[in-house]
Amino acid sequence: MKATFFVAAAVLGLASAGELKIDVTRKVKCERKTKAGDSVAMHYRGTLQDTGKQFDASYDRGQPFRFNLGSGQVIKGWDQGLLDMCIGEKRTLTIPPEFGYGERGIGPIPGGATLVFETELLSIDGVETPEKIEEVEDEAKEAEDVPAEETKEEEEGKSEL
């Protein structure tokens, strides 16, 4: 199921009202979601929105990135965009400069850049990682997967009522 959320920079009192865009690309069921203060492990791939050029990826190093969520150890786009996430969930974060590296940039990231991160939550310290990740199906996709005969029978049944 793909869901999109926005967090306005204006909420933080910033002059430029950029938006943090969160696309859930793999939604999963869980009992415990991430919250501020959690120590988490993520895989990610970061690209520049305007060129698509990759500037960093934990996948390339073969090791997840570990940090404390909501503590300022990472950019604001991550601290906010990775909250309420289940282990095994995947999100694509589109992060405006206000939630990234601002006008200064850093290393291969130019000032004023909008960043795109493909992320996957691998673990939350102190939370058991499920043996099997249970995905939440897209309801629209499920409706498309129903055979035409079944849909026709349902329609005929409704007209008889």
Automatic annotation (TrEMBL):
InterPro entries hit by this protein: FKBP2/11, PPIase_dom_sf, PPIase_FKBP_dom
Molecular function terms from GO: peptidyl-prolyl cis-trans isomerase activity
Function, as annotated: PPIases accelerate the folding of proteins. It catalyzes the cis-trans isomerization of proline imidic peptide bonds in oligopeptides.
Acidic residues composition bias: residue spans: 134-161
E.C. code: 5.2.1.8
Domain PPIase FKBP-type: 37-125
Catalytic function, reaction form: [protein]-peptidylproline (omega=180) = [protein]-peptidylproline (omega=0)
Listed name of the protein: peptidylprolyl isomerase
PANTHER family tied to this protein: PEPTIDYLPROLYL ISOMERASE
Keyword field: Isomerase, Rotamase, Signal
Signal peptide residue numbers: 1-17
A single cellular component GO annotation: endoplasmic reticulum
Disordered: annotated segments: 127-161
Source organism of this protein record: [Torrubiella] hemipterigena
